Amino acid sequence: MFHLKTPVEIEYLKKSNQIIAKSFDLIRPHIKPGVTTKEIDTIVEDFIRSKGARPSYKGYSPGKGFKPYPAATCISVNEEVIHGIPGIYRLEEGDIVSVDIGTELAGYYGDATFNYTVGKVSPEAKALVEHTEKALYLAIDVCREGNYLNEIGKAISFYLSPLGYGIIREYCGHGVGKAVHEEPPVLNYYDPKRKGPKLKKGLVIAIEPMITMGNPAIAVKSDGWTVVTRDQSLASHWEHSIAITDGEPIILSAY
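Predicted structure:
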């Protein structure tokens, strides 16, 4: 069961998400060789707090057995799919790096990811990033009242699978509201047996395709958080939080 948001709640969610959108612009000049992922994280955290919000990932734990997440952002480089912990790694020419940011403002959460490229990247890496971003927008386009939830995964997989990319199945999108993660889960692949609920006006969800250049098999590093491709192939991650309306969906985290 999921909670439909009122127009007032959606406005609060938009304000929280717009802090993220502005963060993406703020760090763009810093996505360059020689800058550490920790430096990027610090810039984002300082900005979020300057807006009267807090970084919702910092200290977050999904349950027993998980250490609290230690940073304001998840910064995942190259073969890292999601949940990369910022640290001493210095970006290099040719890297692809996704920056996943969560915010909480007045009890309402934001969630979005931008996948940057560092300097000149290989044609294959550039294509992976661009196709994953396109899949995100194709998925957003089917978010219309009356459609079933599984249309989202269908849009993503029907576009990306024929191109030979791998789709991560162990992680997915989710509802957005007054918690880091809410119902319903939003799959990135198509399962005709799992139609899911019909999309309704007031539903707010995060859509986040997590795509690999090679095999979609994953592993979690010893830090307990960072998810990587087992075959060390590149991975791309994009994400927007969107609200279902009686017309076109609203991209709350629009850059």
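Summary: The helical segments are 7-27, 37-50, 123-141, 150-160.
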